[in-house]
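Next up, a chain.

===
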Amino acid sequence: MSRRSSYKQYEKLKDLIVREQFMDACPEDLATSLREKDLPTLERVAKEADLFLKARNRKLCDQPRKLFPSNARPRMDSVRPLEPEKRFNGGQRAGEAKMSVADQRRPDI
């Protein structure tokens, strides 16, 4: 595969991804209309979207698509509280020996 053909393939793939992202972000009726027309390029999608919105006297940002219902809340039944760390011997962890202040000083090197 030559560089030129791989670059064309890259540009086609990028165009497809951006078209899909655009259609996922726009209002549902507009996205349906655009998908039904099976437009080949992002430029054509943009022109058709403008015509669609002008014909209905709307703007792209008038009605954002809701990704989640307004009553959606995170499920808390699957969240468990963390267990506190178990400490013994006056704040020392199990198996740790208590060190004196002299032991904790850094040795002179």
Helices lie at 3-25, 28-37, 42-55, 101-104. Residues 3-55 form one domain. The chain has a mean pLDDT of 76.
